[in-house]
Amino acid sequence: MARDTRDRILDAASRLFSERGFDGTAVAEVLALAGVRSGSLYHFFAGKEALAEAVVARCADRLREALLDPAEAAASDPLERVFALVGLWRRGLENGAPGAADPTGLLAAELAARRPTIGRLAEGYGARLATRVRGWLDAAGPRLPAGTDRGELAGFVFTVLEGATMQSRAAGSVEPFDRAVGQLRLLFSLLEGAARAAPVPVTGKAEQPAATVRTDGDPAGWRAW
Amino acid sequence: MARDTRDRILDAASRLFSERGFDGTAVAEVLALAGVRSGSLYHFFAGKEALAEAVVARCADRLREALLDPAEAAASDPLERVFALVGLWRRGLENGAPGAADPTGLLAAELAARRPTIGRLAEGYGARLATRVRGWLDAAGPRLPAGTDRGELAGFVFTVLEGATMQSRAAGSVEPFDRAVGQLRLLFSLLEGAARAAPVPVTGKAEQPAATVRTDGDPAGWRAW
Question: Which residues of A touch B122 (CB under 8 A)?
């Protein structure tokens, strides 16, 4: 029962933060959407920032069940799993369903400077997502060029999701998201084409080794996730 | 003199919003950094939201002189202009110099839902940036595959800048930005490689026509910029 109340508050806060940002959301609106009194909220959370932190922590906890496992189940082809994940992410953006839309990136950008825990949770979130994507990219084996740094590419998928989400929020439409995904598909098509053409390191690597393809292992410790 | 005061306030607000977001910035901090009294601020701006709107409007106004023209001047090669722009953007992130760091994306994400003008200004900003980049991509001619939608690719450069900026803010480091730029370079290397290999539509187009390469002209009216 207490658990239900806490979850209801977090569902409401997650949805409102996702739609309006931290500052744009009044605690009174969270209470109204969750159907609870302020005493219940302050029983669980010391204040609005603590509530935001709990929302981000829960998103990170739920990432596996909400996005990663369903994406893996939705496609058997390892590269299509990447786009199944993208599709699930998009559904969260579009529906604004409680718990579906993910305010992690926005809350981290707004709050990390004064609440470092939120920045760390958001980084952990990105790292977990990228680690799973990296596993899919590894499973794609020779369908990607031999020289591709799959860890970097996995991190880039998350960068694109974040940027596309920001643009879609500003535009109030999923159209920018879809356009960005089209270009991400282009990148993957090119990688597959390059792998088919020559099962050796990707074109251009010799010209721009440092910036183009990183091969220095696991600099951010992503494998720890 | 009045103009100076207004600019000083906007410089301070731009820097603080960029570092801490809208909510994380107190009007008193803007006043302290700008070295003005609250009367001066409220002489020019009706309130904190109006101040944020003016910051975003000024970023859009200054985009040409602050980023686009310098990027064009920094490189004669049209594709290297894209990365000159990326480098200038990065400098803003790194320095936190007044007026250099650009809070447009963050303010739009935070405020667009309740202050639509900010969303529209941010979209205009992205559209102007993408239009200039598109011109560079057009100038690259046959160095990019014939089937590439250069408008979509230009918009994607902005998506990556936004996503990488968000991640760098959350991490408090430019490292995520640099990693994303490495992958953007990879995309361009692959495009150039594909163009060299076959001066015809890019690999994979036939398999995923709608998502991979759009050829439906100018759906968002970007050419108007």
Answer: 170
The answer to whether ipTM exceeds 0.85 is no
| Candidates B59, B186, B190, B208, partner chain A, best to mutate (most A CBs within 10 A) | B186
Alpha-carbon radius of gyration of chain A: 19
Q: Answer yes or no: are the C-beta atoms of B224 and B132 closer than 8 Å.
A: no
- Please state the domain extents for chain A: 59-224
Q: A67: which residues sit within 8 A by CB, 6+ positions away?
A: A85, A88, A89, A129
What's the CATH number for A59-224? Answer: 1.10.357.10
From residue B56, alpha-carbon distances to A116, B126, B152 in Å are: 26, 12, 24
From chain B, the residues in CB contact with A183 under 8 A are 152-153, 155-156, 159, 187
Chain A positions in Cβ-Cβ contact with residue B211 (cut-off 8 Å): 181-182, 185
Q: Positive or negative CA dihedral for B151, B156, B159, B161? A: negative
Helix H or strand E encompassing B198: none
The minimum CA-CA distance between A55 and chain B, rounded to whole Å, is 16
- Per-residue b/e over B199-217, b at no fewer than 16 CB within 10 Å? eebbbbbeeeeebbbbeee
Kindly report the CATH number that applies to the domain delimited by B60-224: 1.10.357.10
CA-to-CA distance for A9 and A18, rounded, in angstroms?
Answer: 14
Q: List the pLDDT tens digit at each of the 225 positions of chain A.
A: 677 999 999 999 998 888 878 888 899 999 999 999 999 999 999 999 999 999 999 988 889 998 999 999 999 999 999 999 999 999 888 765 433 467 888 888 778 877 889 888 988 899 999 999 999 999 999 999 998 999 999 999 999 999 998 888 778 789 999 999 999 999 999 999 999 987 654 454 444 433 333 334 444 433 333
